[in-house]
Amino acid sequence: MDLQDQLKKLFPDHEPSNEAEIVEDKEHTLFIQKEPMICKYEKRKGKATTIIEGYEGSDEDFKILAKELKTKLSVGGTFKDSSIIIQGDYRDKIMDLLKEKGFKVKRVGG
User: Distance (Å, rounded) from C-alpha 10 to C-alpha 30?
Assistant: First the structure.
């Protein structure tokens, strides 16, 4: 018994459609701000963390930016309380990536 037969048993009234689904893939642009974002270094529970704060756009855009930074750096991290917390000291790399995207970044501490 293949998958189609199982689906017909579960949903006997369903008629499959042969039309192709149209999916719009639009480019999402991030909000470029006037004030610089703050990139700082902290130790939390003895471990190095990089914190990025000061984004003026929406939280959804900031979450997208957090995910992009984490994947490009191949590190863990989170988005919490309007700030991105990255595991490890990656201030220089993060600042370079943000400058490439057109953000102004200010380094705080050390």
Answer: 44
